[in-house]
Amino acid sequence: MSDLLPQLASLVGERHVVSGETLRDRPQDFWNNVPTPARALVKPGTTSEVSAVLALCNGNGIAVIPEGGRTNLSQATRSDERSILLSLERLDDIETPDEAGLTVVVGAGVVIQTLQERCAASGLRFGLDFGARGSAMIGGALSTNAGGFQALRYGVTRDMVLGLECVLADGTVLSHLIPFRKDNTGYDLKQLFIGSEGTLGVITRATLRLHPAPVTRNTALLSFADFTAVARTLSRLRRDLRGTLSSFEIMWPEFFDFNVEALYGERRPIGSGASFYCLCEAEGFEPDSDGALFEDVISAALGAGDVADAVIAQSSRQRDELWKIREDFEAEQNFFNVMIDFDISLPLKVMDKFVAEVDAALKSEIPASLGLHVLGHLGDGNLHVTTGLPTPEHASSLKDLVYGLIARYQGSISAEHGIGILKRDYLHHSRSPAEIETMRTLKRALDPRNTLNPGKVI
Amino acid sequence: MSDLLPQLASLVGERHVVSGETLRDRPQDFWNNVPTPARALVKPGTTSEVSAVLALCNGNGIAVIPEGGRTNLSQATRSDERSILLSLERLDDIETPDEAGLTVVVGAGVVIQTLQERCAASGLRFGLDFGARGSAMIGGALSTNAGGFQALRYGVTRDMVLGLECVLADGTVLSHLIPFRKDNTGYDLKQLFIGSEGTLGVITRATLRLHPAPVTRNTALLSFADFTAVARTLSRLRRDLRGTLSSFEIMWPEFFDFNVEALYGERRPIGSGASFYCLCEAEGFEPDSDGALFEDVISAALGAGDVADAVIAQSSRQRDELWKIREDFEAEQNFFNVMIDFDISLPLKVMDKFVAEVDAALKSEIPASLGLHVLGHLGDGNLHVTTGLPTPEHASSLKDLVYGLIARYQGSISAEHGIGILKRDYLHHSRSPAEIETMRTLKRALDPRNTLNPGKVI
């Protein structure tokens, strides 16, 4: 189809079609600084334009790869020379939030942090937060069902969606932007498009749930001698902090000590030698009493012998320093020459045993492996496990080893990053042949010409 | 297929196949005391047996109607002479709840109240509660995505599901009984089966989320002069009761006065003449302070002038009396000769106007209509609107009138009761032709022979 580019230009405007050298000069994504291969990058400005672009490409057998902030961790927005990249970045409007109904309608191209700030200005909280907040877009978060730091309180992205508008491969627009929570009018179609990584439809717009914005914030770093004490403390905080617990991030000591050393050297924020460290944060509505309640609950956990040591942040600077231990991965990225990371969910009761077994197996079976960094969102059963190798040699056997153990512990091989290309060949470790075949059936039914993000997920 | 019954008996055991007069003597469901038409009622005891029954029926072109507690409000379990009824009642096991992980694995045949009580015995709360708790089963609640009294705190049934096992029309078993919240391993298949009323698969088992069981319970009946004061008070209670608000049930005065008169005559629990009455309940974890907090927050709402009058239940007997006003529909059922009810969701900001418009339209266009009873779960945007007629004449124009208004206000024609047969012809008031066609595409893909609950939903 030689006149594809002019046709695309006629649909979205010439300046919204990028091709040739300009496109090749753009890195494929945040993680892969390689030229972007694609016939063109198309930036529609409305849902109708998205629909027209899809109808054109679908009719001509041209693959379409939707993209947002391009910080996906599973290569879900990778394109090739024959495909069209479809950026949702121009669908970036935020309607006025409904303060009584606690909802907001947004376009897929809205950056997470922009929405967070817009909501905060109205005394509201959009409950999704993760490291890439400054670049990741709502459409990408919806397509990957992103999780993050506050899922234990506000849920994952799926839990925040009331209504959705999306476009099928053939250009059909499905719009159901309801602002209420209860709706049983036939099949809940939106669920198919949330988390399916752009393979079933292109999300253009959503009605999202909001929450009243808390006005207090209390943060502590806790250390523990054993895992059961960590789990008991999570239960205690969930209960005694009266619903204000918003984060409970666990770090195994190998990662914690590594990052503390890298960031602060000798200036450790808490004593060494513990078996686990947890960063916990509560956000509430009572300026007069939340701080005292937080201290009381932490004191009770210390008194009960569950918490070995505790540091409560006394300033926002100290809070930022504590969060940096959890959020800053620069030293880690430099340390692990060939970095290999796993984003997994596990039943709480086997988590500690699983990590010990991975550690032992790596040491005995992949002697070249460079340590094991484990951290995660304990309240969601979600761990991030990172290791590395001096060279790519053994990478494949290392992955087989860890994915095999995840399967044996009945865990999920992708908690919040999705499958994309990187994990496609491992999907069978978490899903049965019957489930994968059912996914293929759905893909064939909704996208019979395999137009949308082909080769991703399944 | 003349030897169907012996074949079914060979799959599930002879005593688990009911047919002939025994079956006909059984009422079709709780609401329709008519004989049950079907070739047989089959009661498999395991997921494998469900699979075998479905494979047999699907292979022979025989429709299968799944049923649970048979209290469905949209005739979603109606059978006919040619179909097989598939009861899940024998899949009634409850695994030991995981107190640390806050999960439980249950069979589809578990009665809601049985699960509530089993969880309560372990200090846990299963957050689903509605009137039919004593008969409705988990499988039915999942298939209809049931809502109920505590959705504002715990969500609807969909929000309580972590993992699901179900069987496709051809007998394929899809099992993904994960006990954690974060899982992005391909398409979230369970969402297709939740709320699709048995038309896409038969749910056999689920992993459900639990919560710590509250230990305090405080209940109040509030009256209001206007709707904005009701909405403001809901926001206030959500915020100031520190996450303990579990119910906020609104009643318009025509229903409230009617039911108070029917239940208690002159002994009114609260002064008359208000524009709205709300039953609110908080359940918390602090026996020493929750009662005082509840009184303080209600007092503040009175002091602010939003609440006109308030009665706080002083005993469990008084609490039950207050709840009875909301839950007891016996007098209403006797009063409305031909009862016509609507289960709808609406944006909060148009709710009051909608009700006023329905009231005026009924009075002017359907003069035979016998009043308008409105109540609902305000926190979920969900109203139950009931009216009646002396005879079935005008029933169809009354429905057209109300559904037309729901569509005009962009509401949902089914908030929590589903579509079944009763609302199938009205589905287009809430869903577009493109959405309904996409539902049909999914139905054809997963159940190409139209074996599962044919004629329901779409």
TrEMBL record, chains A, B:
Record InterPro entries: FAD-bd_oxidored_4_C, FAD-bd_PCMH, FAD-bd_PCMH-like_sf, FAD-bd_PCMH_sub1, FAD-bd_PCMH_sub2, FAD-linked_Oxase-like_C, FAD-oxidored/transferase_4, Oxid_FAD_bind_N
Location of the FAD-binding PCMH-type domain: 33-213
Domain of life: Bacteria
Pfam families: FAD-oxidase_C (PF02913), FAD_binding_4 (PF01565)
Signal peptide stretch: none
PROSITE patterns to which the protein is assigned, alphabetical: FAD_PCMH (PS51387)
Keyword Hydrolase: no
Cofactor: FAD
Keywords: FAD, Flavoprotein, Oxidoreductase
Entry-linked PANTHER family: D-2-HYDROXYGLUTARATE DEHYDROGENASE, MITOCHONDRIAL
Family statement: Belongs to the FAD-binding oxidoreductase/transferase type 4 family.
UniProt protein name: FAD-binding oxidoreductase
Species for this entry: Mesorhizobium liriopis
Species lineage: Bacteria, Pseudomonadati, Pseudomonadota, Alphaproteobacteria, Hyphomicrobiales
